[in-house]
Amino acid sequence: MTDTFNDLQQSYGRCLARRGFIERFYQIFMASHPDIEPMFARTDFQKQRLALRRGISVAILHAGGSAIVTRTCAQMAEVHGRQGRAPVPPALYPYWIDSLLVAVAEFDEDADETLLARWRAAMQRVCEFFTHHY
């Protein structure tokens, strides 16, 4: 039986139900490494917040093996690939994961070490996919 990470979808829903989750993630993420904030210098954050909101859902589905998001995930990997419009060096993905987990721990009142470990495992799957396509 495949792990669909339904618990992460529920956790993500709890995070989004509390106002400011995506904004808080970006605060944490941009402060996590000196190379990250400059990458967002010309970013339209209204669009970026929506893209991330969707992207996390896609990442959870991808981690669960959903074929529905295969094309979307490949497109996201292309955007963040070496030749993409927003390249992300693979060395920065651990900062993305760590920042997301800090934000989840702050916004999901049911987050515990087990749930956060599952978040990490799922997000590592999508980051490995992106790294493979870099």
TrEMBL record:
<dbReference type="InterPro" id="IPR009050">
    <property type="entry name" value="Globin-like_sf"/>
</dbReference>
<dbReference type="InterPro" id="IPR012292">
    <property type="entry name" value="Globin/Proto"/>
</dbReference>
<protein>
    <submittedName>
        <fullName>Globin</fullName>
    </submittedName>
</protein>
<dbReference type="InterPro" id="IPR044399">
    <property type="entry name" value="Mb-like_M"/>
</dbReference>
